[in-house]
Structures are given as C-alpha cells and as structure tokens.
Amino acid sequence: GETILLAEDEPAVRELAEDILRGFGYDVLTARDGQAALEVHQRHADRRIDLLLTDVVMPRLSGRVLAETLAPLRPGLKVLFMSGYTEDAIIQHGLRVAGIAFLEKPFSPSRLAAKVREVLDAPAQSAPPLVV
Predict the structure, then answer these.
(1) For 94, left (φ over 0), alpha (ψ -120 to 50), or beta?
(2) Percent helix, strand and coil across the chain, each rounded to 5?
(3) Taking the CB of residue 8, how many other CB atoms lie within 10 A of it?
(4) Distance (Å, rounded) from C-alpha 120 to C-alpha 16?
(5) DSSP string across 5-18
(6) What does the pLDDT average to over 50-74?
(7) Left if phi > 0, otherwise alpha if psi is -120 to 50, otherwise beta: which for 99?
(8) H/E element, 87
(9) pLDDT of residue 89
(10) What is residue 90's predicted lDDT score, i.e. its pLDDT?
C-alpha cells in the first residue's frame, strides 16, 4: 500500500525500476524528470506519497531541487537519491553523501528493493541538509 514517486530521465532505467517496485507490491507514480515529478505530485495532491526515488542529475530540475521543493509540501516524505555518477560528481551537484539515502546505479532488483524498504522503515527524522 505504499506509494513511490519515481523521477528518472532515462526511460529504460525508469521502466526497469517501476517494474521492480511494482513486483514488490508498491504503487508507483513515474516522471521523466524533476519538473514532471512536480506535475505528478500536483495531480495527486490528495494522495499520500511515502517515498521520492529520484535520480540526482536530470534535465529541467535536479533531484536535489525536486526533493527540496517537495519536502515542505509533503511532510514526512522520505527521499532516496540514485545516480550512476561518482561520489565526487554527486557532491558537486550539491548533495552531501553522508546523512542522505543513496543508491548507486546500476543496481540489481534485490538491491533496489532492499534500499527502498530500508528507507521506508527508517524512523522519521528531520531531513539532513542537502546542500553542501
């Protein structure tokens, strides 16, 4: 019964992640980038979204900016960032690797499912600052 908002600009990765998550019983709302994810959020304003699973580097709106925009609009929203870039590149995109949930691409179905479950099951806490 948990809902995940998936923002990923690579169609193959987005479709794979969606299939994996649906296979594990999650309801998945998909978006091709950060801006589209904001539009999905608005269309589903009356619906609970438990997790934002977002790529870090996307056109139009980065994962960091997307998470920062949604945080005040969706209290309690948990965030899992993913990227195929190196840790140094992630830091350059304004994310602190320590203290945020992060999944490196490529990932296996079991690794994606385990990391999503880990983030969803983590106790609610104030979000760490995303900006370095």
Answers:
(1) left
(2) 40, 20, 40
(3) 24
(4) 20
(5) EEE-SSHHHHHHHH
(6) 93
(7) left
(8) helix 87-92
(9) 58
(10) 64
Tens digits of residue pLDDT in 65-110:
999 999 999 999 999 999 887 666 566 666 655 567 889 899 999 9
Q: Which long-range contacts (CB under 8 A, 24 or more apart) does 55-58 make?
A: 55/7, 55/8, 55/9, 55/10, 55/13, 55/81, 55/82, 55/83, 56/81, 56/82, 56/83, 56/85, 56/90, 56/93, 56/95, 57/83, 57/85, 57/89, 57/93, 58/7, 58/8, 58/9, 58/33, 58/34
For residue 23, pLDDT beyond 60:
yes
Give the pLDDT confidence score for residue 124 in this predicted structure: 72
Strand, helix or coil at 121? helix
Q: What is the dihedral of CA 61, 128, 26, 3, to 10 degrees?
A: -70
Whether residue 95 contacts residue 81, with contact meaning beta carbons closer than 8 Å, is answered with yes
pTM of the model: 0.89
Q: Write the pLDDT tens digit of every residue in 114-124.
A: 999 999 999 87
Question: Residue holding tokens 């304004």?
Answer: 94
